[in-house]
Amino acid sequence: MDDDHGSTHSDNHDTFEPYLLTEFTGDYFGTYNEEDFEWPEIRRVMESDSETQEEDEDEDCDELGDGDAIAAHDAELEHGWELPVDPASQDIDFPGSEDVSLQPQPCHAERRQAEAPLGQHPTIEKFPRRGAGAPLHCAATTAFTSYKDKLSGSENIWAPFASRVDYEVAKWAKLRGAGSTAFSELLAIDGLHDALGLSYRNSRELNQIIDQELPCRRPRFKHEEIIVANEAFDVYSRDIMECVKALYSDPDFSQHLLHAPERHYVDSDKTVRMYHDLHTGKWWWSTQASDRKFMLPTSAYCGLTIQKELETKKRGATVIPIILSSDKTQVTMFRNKSAYPVYMTIGNIPKEIRRKPSRRAWILLAYLPTAKLEHITNKAARRRTSTNLFHACLRHILEPLRVPGEDGVAMASGDGVVRRGHPILACYSADYPEQLLTTGIKSGECPKCDVPRDELGCPDIPVKLRDLVAILAALSLVDEDYGMWTRACQECGIKPVFKPFWEDLPHANIFQSITPDVLHQLYQGIIKHLIEWIKEAYSEAEIDARCRRLPPNHNIRLFMKGISSLSRVSGTEHNQICRFLLGIIIDIRLPGNLDSARLIRAVRAILDFLYLAQYPCHTDQTLNLLDDALTRFHNNKGIFVDLGIRANFNLPKLHFFRHYVHMIKLYGTTDNYNTEYTERLHIDLAKDAYRATNHKDEYPQMTLWLERREKMLWHDKFVQWRLAGDPPVQDRLPPDMDYRRALKMTKHPTAKRVPLDRIICDYGATFFTEALARYVVRTNQPTLSAVQLEREAAHIVLPFQTVATFHRVKFHTINASGYRDPTATIDSVHCQPPRKDNKGHIIPGRFDTVLVNEGDGGTTGVNGYRVAQVRVVFTLTSHAAAALFRTPAKAPTHFAYVEWFTPFGQPEANHGLYKISRVIRNGERLASIIDISDIRRSVHLIPKFGPVVPREWTSSTVLDLCSSFFVNSFSDRHAYLTII
Fold it and tell me: How far are the Cα atoms of 172, 184, 214, 751 from residue 196, in angstroms, in the given order?
C-alpha cells in the first residue's frame, strides 16, 4: 500500500499470568496416557468464540460458549509444563545457509501456468458414435408418477399419512428421533396422540404403515447362506442389478446422469487433456469404443486389450460403471463387534453428488460374514479359508452382472427415458489389506503391477500391469489339477484363490480397477511414516514446543500438547498435522551437523504430492507436476538413510504413488473413488444401524431399520416433488476448483458501541482515528499527493465517539454456477480483544492475519496481494457516513483496521514458502483502514522460530513477539491453490 496510509505501533498486548498448575502423576490405579481420556467439547478444531459483556449475541455463534471453552483451555495449556530446552541443540556448529546447489524446486510461475486452465469451461469432444448412450424410447411414466400410482389414497398429498403433522412426526421419528421405545412412550402421554391427530399410536403401528403402505424403491435385503469349507456363513445382501436400477432411476440424479464418454481439453486445438469426472477418463472411452482406432493404445501398463468393444456387438450401449468398496469396521467401542459392509455406486452420477452422503448416491449392497474362523487352528489354512469366503460371497452377490454386462438391459432413468445399460465393474475402492484380499496378491507387494517387493522403492523400474490373461489361465486349472493350479498361480504372482469373484465378470480387469486411496495411502500411510521419520530426525521436545506456539487460524488445529505423544492418530488428525508440518521444521538443526535442505525438500515434495493428488480437476500439465513432486521426493529421500532412520523405501503405499497419474487418466480424479467417502458411510449404514438394534441377532434388525429409513427418505423426496414440482433444468457445470468465496457479515454487530479509547487500548488499533481520517480523505479526493493527503487528514473531525465492531468475518463457498452455500463456513477471521469466560478465566485476544487485495490481485498467485493483521472490523452509522463521505452511498458498509506486513518477494529455495515481516516506520507499525471486501481470505503465518524456539513465546503472543514469518500455503486446499 502507499506510504500515506499512516502507521501504528501495537506492542500493547496484555500479559497474562500463568495459572497455578499441579502436575498430574497418576492415581492409585496407575498412570494414563492423555489420549486415553479425551476432554469432551475441548479437543475440536477451534470454533467461533461466543460474545460477552455488552456485546450482542452473534446469530451464528454457539450459545453454549464452546468456542470460549476451547480458547480458555488452550490459554491454560500455553502456560503448562513442557520439556526444557536441550542444551546440545544450542551448541551445535550449524552452517547458516542451506545448500541451494541441489536440483531446483519447481518454479511458481510454471505451476501457475499449468493450473491456469483448471476450473474453466473445457473444449469437449463427444464420442464419435452417436448411438453411445442414446435413448431407446421413453417410458409411459416417470419414477415419481410410478411411485404415486403405487400409493393408496394418493389424492392426499401426505398419503399414506393423514396430515402434514402426521407425516412430519413420522419422518422425525424415523430419521431424527430417539429409539422406538422412547417414541412409543412419548405417544403414550395422555392426550398427545389425539391432539396431534396421528394415525399411529406407537412405533409398531408406524412401522406397519411404512412396511405395508410405502412402496420399495430400493431392493430389500435377502438372507442367504454361503457354504465354504463345509461350513455355512450368513450373508445379507441385495440384488445388485436392482440396486443399479434404483440409482439410475432416482429422479434426483436424472438431469445430472452421464451417459457417454467425452474427451475434455483445455485448448481449442485439443492437445492438452483435462480429467475430472469418470466419463472424462480413458477407461470409459475405450470400453465404449466400436473401432480400434478409438481404443487406447496398447501398452504394458494399461492392460485394456482384454476389453471387448461394446459397440462392435451392441450398438447404442450405455456403459454403467460400477464402483465397489468394502471395508470391515468396528460398530462397538469395547465388545469388539464388527460389521463388513460392501457399498456400491455408479459412475454415471457425477462425483459432486456421489461424494456427499446426504445425496444418498451410495447403496449398502451387503453385509459380509465377520467370522474369525478361530476353530481353524492352522493360521495359513484360516487365512486361505477367509479369502475364499470373501470371494465366494462377492461372486454370489455380483453374479447378476454377468449377462447384463455383456448383452445389456433396459434401464429407465428418473425422467422415464430408457437406455440399454451395460453394468461393468470399473473401480474397486479399498485400503491396502482389502486390495490384497480382492486381488489375491501377497502382502508386501503391489496389488496392481509386478514390480518385485524388494524393488518397490526404486523409481526407475518400469511398471507393468499384472498379466490378467495369464492369471485367468492359471486360475482355470483349479478344476483340472490342484498341484498344477497352485504352481501356476505362484508363477503368476498371486495366491491360489478358488474362483475369485472377478474371474467371469465381463470387460473387467481387477488389477486395473484397484484405485488410488488418498486416505489410507497418503494420510494414514506415507504421511504417518513421514511424521515418525521427522520425530526421529529432530528433537521431539522442540517439535512439540513449536506446535504449542503456532498462531490460531480457522483452518489450523492447535496441538497444545504437541504431536509426539499422540497415539491412535486418525486420518483427520494427520490431515491437520500436514497443514503446518513443513513450517515447524524449517530452522530445526539436524544431528551430526547434517544439512537439512534435503529433508525439507523431501517433506515439501510429499506435501506437494498430497495436495496435487486431491485436485478435483487435472490436466496433462498438472499431472506432470504430480510426477515431478514424486521425483523430487525420490531425489531427496536419501537424507533419511543418512540419518539412520530408513534402510530402504520398499513401501507398497509409496510405490503406489507411481500409479496415480495413470489412474487419474483412466478413471478421472481421485475424488471419484476415495475411501474417505465410504468411511463416512460406516456411521450411517453400519454403526447407527447397529445402535438401533438390541445387539442380539443384529443383522435382521439392522437391515430392516435401513429399509424403513430408506423408504422414509425416498417418500420425503416424493412429498417435496408433490409440493414443488419438477426442479428446473440445470446446465452442466464446469469442473469446480473452489476458487471463489463469498464474504459474510452478521446482521448485527458483536458490540454496538465501543468507545474509541477501547478501540485503541483493547483492540490495539493505536492510530485508529488517524488512519480513518486518511481513508476518508483518500476516498473523497483520490488524486491528492501524499503531502496533500496528510494536510487534509489533519482537519478531519470524526463526528462520533463510539463505533460498532464485529469480532468475526465468515466466508462461504460459491460454486461454478454462482450458488452460495450459506450452511458451511469454510473460512473465518477473528478480531476479538481479551475477555473472560464464564469461569472467570482470561482468554487472550485473537487478531487473525488475512490476504488483502490491493486492487489488482488475480484468482491465483500473490501478485497484487499483501498480508495484514486485522485489529478491528467496524461499521459507521448512516449519519457518520453522510458527514464524512461526499457520496455516502458508495462508501463501504464495513471497514477493517489492519497492520501491514512486507510485500511478497521470492519464495525460499528449499521449502518454497514466502517470507514476510512487519512493516515498521519510525519504530511504529504501518496501519491502514481498508474496505472489508478487499479481504480475500484468512492467512496462517508460521513464525520463523530459529534453531530453538524462544520459550517465552505463546500461541496468543507470537504474532507480536516474532519478527519474521512464513506464509503457510498448506493451511487448506484453497490456500495451496491460490498462494503460489
Answer: 14, 14, 22, 43
